[in-house]
Amino acid sequence: MAIHRALSFPLSRVEEVARESPFKVQEADAARLSSCDAFHIIRKLLAKQQDSDFCQYHLPMSREDKEAWLLQRDITHALVLPILEIFRHASDVAKSMLGNRNIYDLELVFRGEARGAFSWLQCFIAEEEDWCRTKGCPACVVSKVLEAEPTIRIVLVACRLSESLRQPHNNANLPVLHFWLASLRNALNEDPFWGPDFRSHLESRAEILETGIQNLAKQCLELEELLKRESNTSNAAAVALVKAQRYAPTKPTKLRISRLAERQIALAKEENSWMQKIIVGCWTTLLADAAEARRKSSLSQDHLRPSKARHLTS
């Protein structure tokens, strides 16, 4: 059972500061985000699609406080979005492997830590669907991060993945969000329930989930390659092949250490490249959709704009 401070901790101290965000954004980090087109698009989409009204518990508040809550809500959304996209793509891969059979047990396609990560994400997203979509009061969305261990864990993992996914190519399309990890750690250290002693436990569990997600990406890459090789066979034959490989006893292969090390390095690069492709594709789609929406809006305005007619007396 996940640790939930709201059920096991007197919140007198927490309630006193509940109207203040536990997270801090430095001016330099805020300026860097404001210059990122992808993050700007995210903010515009959330402003249009989500209800940005605050609940009565957090009102009244100043304009500056509202803007701070909204910025942190949007940062949380941008952090969690890549993990949701990885899970969605992994689900699509699993469905492709299973066809019409046993679609409710998609985790069975994966093995080991990857299966554990997929199952954890599946349960978390189902239970916290509104929070994953950052629905509701922006201040409540941000504050909820520290309410329970699962939300802390997924944000910790999101921060770590955000940094690792940028490193190989330093892609300018991805927003720079690594500073949020330090902000989250400071919030955990200062929190009266979690504190610095429990933070190490939280981070160790986040590392396990991060490893599972990386293995999930690796196995998705392998399954996609298998689908390509089996593209000319029937779906039934592909499913039988996957089941045979999953349940067949594995035999150790004799390889030289140097070749094994090279293969591990190659797999790590392919795995990171796979996640990079998924995330960059997600952000690219957002940018393309926003550009198309702006184009349609511009055409609509040009169509409605009255034309000037020249008269003989003018």
Order of helices and strands: HHHHHHHHHHHHH
Rg, nearest Å: 24 Å
How many helical elements?
13
The number of E-state strands comes to 0
Label the overall shape: globular
Description:
The chain is globular. The C terminus is likely disordered. The protein is mostly helical and 314 residues long. Helix 5 crosses helix 13. The N and C termini lie far apart (81 Å). The protein is 69% helix and 0% strand. It is built from 13 helices and no strands. The longest helix has 48 residues.
Sequence-ordered SSE layout with sheet pairings:
Blueprint: H1 5-8, H2 12-16, H3 27-34, H4 37-49, H5 63-98, H6 112-127, H7 129-132, H8 138-143, H9 149-166, H10 179-190, H11 195-229, H12 235-247, H13 257-304
Helix pairs in contact: 4-5, 4-13, 5-9, 5-11, 5-13, 6-11, 9-10, 9-11, 10-11, 11-13
Quick synopsis:
This protein is mainly α and 314 residues long. 69% of the residues lie in helices and 0% in strands. Helix 4 (37-49) packs across helix 13 (257-304), helix 5 packs across helix 9 and helix 5 (63-98) crosses helix 13.
Jot down its keywords.
mainly alpha
